[in-house]
Design a protein that fits this description.
By secondary structure, this protein is of the alpha+beta class. Helix content is 46%, strand content 20%. The strands form two sheets. Strands 1-2-9-4-7-10 form a six-stranded antiparallel beta sheet, covered by helices on one side.
């Protein structure tokens, strides 16, 4: 079953998440979500007059069309496009009179770190981001709505993790990806080296030495091939391994997982993990177990 088929089985509705907003304890958090079908021109919302403030909106059109004005430019919103908005802001979206019904999935988020990154997302993609119905962010948004219809996620930590996950997936959709095709031999050598030595300190100079190029040329060639600077690539690998270990090795302590991912200081590992995922390693592992 596709994500959109699942969404249609769930049916129309809207759900809010009753987590305390003041003080904001998490860098990213769920605010609300829903699956809506608007049928007339009474659906008309202004971004500068919305009662919810410091909130972002992902709204993915499943069927029909809508109109959006964003900073003075007007767009038609087609199926397969997601509106990326924040409030308060100069935007308006509505269903013009006489148009067919507008059917869409939406998720609203909030949080200081999320708002900062969301504005970068809007600058990178503009207010509309095209993606197919089987795109990863669409499936995640449907999963959030499905959980909400069942009364969850009850834990703020799990809710924060879902909010951050959706944000990261949208950033991934919006950013240019590395070119397809076989990786150059020097890049393959460096990637293999990183995987083999991930529990150890890995510096860009080491990676350059493995590649056989100077640090300057290696950095330029690696980023062109992988779409990320070398240091950020290593940081991504460490987080991916941490998530894998937390999911698969529930007997390992947080300190052991930190060590296996190349962190000598478990407190620093916890800080980096929380910044990357919106929750602590312990809370993440508990969510996996339950």
């Amino acid at each position: 079953m596709t994500a959109i088929e699942k969404l249609r089985r769930l049916g129309f509705g809207s759900e809010g998440f009753l987590y305390l907003r003041k003080p904001v304890l998490f860098p990213a958090m769920l605010h609300g979500c829903g699956y809506s079908r608007q049928v007339d021109s009474s659906y008309d919302l202004e971004g500068l007059t919305r009662t919810c403030t410091d909130v972002t909106l992902f709204q993915y059109t499943v069927a029909g069309h809508g109109r959006l004005t964003y900073e003075g430019t007007t767009y038609t919103v087609h199926p397969g496009q997601a509106m990326l908005l924040h409030f308060p802001h100069e935007n308006r979206y509505w269903l013009p009179a006489g148009w067919p019904p507008w059917e869409f999935l939406w998720v609203a988020l909030f949080g200081g770190e999320l708002m900062r990154l969301w504005r970068q997302l809007e600058k990178r993609s503009g207010p509309l981001l095209a993606m197919p119905q089987d795109a990863v962010p669409v499936a995640t948004a449907v999963g959030i709505y499905e959980q909400a219809t069942r009364g969850g996620p009850q834990s703020p930590c799990r809710a924060s993790s879902l909010a951050y996950r959706l944000l990261m997936e949208l950033l991934d959709e919006a950013m240019p990806h590395a070119p397809s095709g076989p990786k150059p031999a020097h890049v393959r050598r460096v990637i293999a080296f990183c995987h083999e030595h991930l529990s150890e300190p890995i510096g860009v100079s080491q990676m350059a030495a493995v590649s056989g190029y100077s640090r300057y040329h290696f950095t330029r060639l690696f980023e062109a091939a992988e779409g990320l600077p070398p240091a950020r690539y290593v940081a991504m690998l460490r987080m991916e391994r941490a998530v894998q270990l937390l999911r698969e090795d529930q007997r390992a302590s947080i300190a052991e997982i930190a060590r296996r991912c190349g962190f000598k200081d478990v407190n620093y590992f916890c800080k980096v993990f929380r910044k990357a995922t919106g929750t602590s390693p312990g809370a993440f592992a508990e969510g996996v177990m339950h």
